[in-house]
Amino acid sequence: MRREDVADLIAFAAVAEAGSFTRAAQTLGVTQSALSQIVKRLEERLGLRLLARTTRSVAPTEGGERLLKTLRPMLHDLERSVASLNELRDKPAGTIRITTVEHAAKTILTPLLSRMLKDYPEITVEIVIDYGLADIVAERFDAGIRLGEAVERDMVALRISDEIPMVIVGAPSYLAQHGCPQTPDELTAHRGLNLRLPTSGTLNTWRLAQDGQEMRVRVDGPLIFNTIDLIRDAARAGVGLAYMPRDQVDEDLISGRLVTVMEGWTPPLPAYHLYYPSRRQSSAAFRLFVDALRRNTRR
């Protein structure tokens, strides 16, 4: 493949990812007209239209989407290879992209990175909060953090937390009006504050267990969120019951703003794991990040 062919493919991918010739041209440092000619030349060479253009947007055609799906991991590997040259510098540098859930970001990543990045100012970490099961290769993440049971088997997985204690909580005002559930049947008659899972589009079920038998219970209610902070806020306001990590409501339980119900019914969730592709060449910055997580886990 000629060098100009590679450059044309990079240009196409930039436009497809940005959804705009203007934004892609700014990223690549070329004029919009030059970029348009590059993509047109590529389409003519392939004999296939790759981008559907309107006055307001640009989107890949079916053929363009298929090409982009192939290009994404290849371009990411190229970026990682270039980033690995940072090993020759005095200090690690570059950008690390992590997809994770909100609770892990707050309890693990933020405290860890606040310490680590003081010593390595040339490292940038981008944290994307997403409760879906992201394809970290296709979406160009360096790694992801999820519950251990959700990690794909072909990934390197590093346990980075203990199991996660869970509780069901409600405000005293809510419990005074609706009573305290004692069993799963009684619980399902209450007003639940729920988390929407983007991958499946379904609501997060509440895990209960008794005598070693685990069950999943759905508690319908008036509010659905995509962040646990808002679920906690609604529980404080007396709107309904919330299924939460205990460490996110400890202060509320101490102050009496929230009260636990059905204690003994909520088993802990599996530990969080960092996961990343085993075959990818890692940058010095990423290896430093992984080592910091290992040390943090041993503490």
Mean pLDDT equals 88
Helix-residue proportion: 40-55%
How much β-strand is present in the residues?
A: 15-25%
Poorly predicted runs of 5 or more residues: none
In N-to-C order, the SSE pattern is HHHEEHEHEEEEHHEEEEHEHEEH
In spatial order, strands of the major sheet run 4-3-5-14-6
Number of distinct helices = 10
The biggest beta sheet reads: 5 strands, mixed
Question: What general outline do the C-alpha atoms trace?
Answer: elongated
Distance between the termini: 50 Å
Query: How many distinct beta strands?
Result: 14
| Radius of gyration from CA coordinates | 24 Å
Oligomer: single chain
Given helix and strand content, the structural type is alpha/beta
Task: Give the arrangement of secondary structure elements.
Layout: H1 3-18, H2 21-28, H3 32-46, E1 51-53, E2 58-60, H4 62-83, E3 94-100, H5 102-119, E4 123-129, E5 143-147, E6 155-159, E7 166-170, H6 172-178, H7 184-187, E8 192-195, E9 206-210, E10 213-217, E11 223-225, H8 228-236, E12 241-245, H9 250-255, E13 259-261, E14 272-277, H10 284-298
Helix pairs in contact: 1-2, 1-3, 1-4, 2-3
Structure characterization notes:
With 299 residues, the protein is α/β, with parallel strands linked by helices. The protein has ten helices and 14 strands. The protein has helices spanning 3-18, 21-28, 32-46, 62-83, 102-119, 172-178, 184-187, 228-236, 250-255, 284-298; strands at residues 51-53, 58-60, 94-100, 123-129, 143-147, 155-159, 166-170, 192-195, 206-210, 213-217, 223-225, 241-245, 259-261, 272-277. The strands form four sheets. Strands 4-3-5-14-6 form a five-stranded mixed sheet, with helices on one face. A hairpin with a 2-residue loop joins strand 9 (206-210) and strand 10 (213-217). It is elongated and about 70 Å long. The termini are far apart. The model has no long low-confidence stretch (mean pLDDT 88).
